[in-house]
Amino acid sequence: MAVIKYPQEIKVGVSPKRMFKAMVTESYTILPRIMPVAIKSIELLHGDGGAGTIRQTNFPDG
Fold first, then answer.
1. What is the pLDDT of residues 16-61, one digit of tens each?
2. In sequence order, which ranges of the chain are alpha helices (DSSP H)?
3. Residue 53 lies in a domain
């Protein structure tokens, strides 16, 4: 087994607080919209978004 990393820095026109909220706390709504070929949907199975929450990531067929 190997670990491959692709570090990348991108400048964005929003505050770090807003970017964190989008990519960490709201990623379940954003990722399927920005990567529809890779992620079909993300469903909440259990919890309210806090510790112990379970989300299911669904990938497109093929």
1. 999 899 888 888 899 999 999 999 999 999 998 888 999 999 999 8
2. 16-20, 27-34
3. yes
Using the predicted structure, report yes or no on whether residue 62 has a pLDDT greater than 80.
no
- Identity of the residue numbered 61: D
How would you label 44-55 residue by residue, b for 16+ Cβ within 10 Å and e otherwise? eeeeeeeeeeee
pTM: 0.63
Residue 9 forms part of a structural domain: no
Paired with 57 in beta bridges are 42
| Total count of residues recorded for the chain | 62
Domain count of the chain? 1
Q: Tell me how far apart the alpha carbons of residues 30 and 8 are, in angstroms, rounded to a whole number.
A: 19
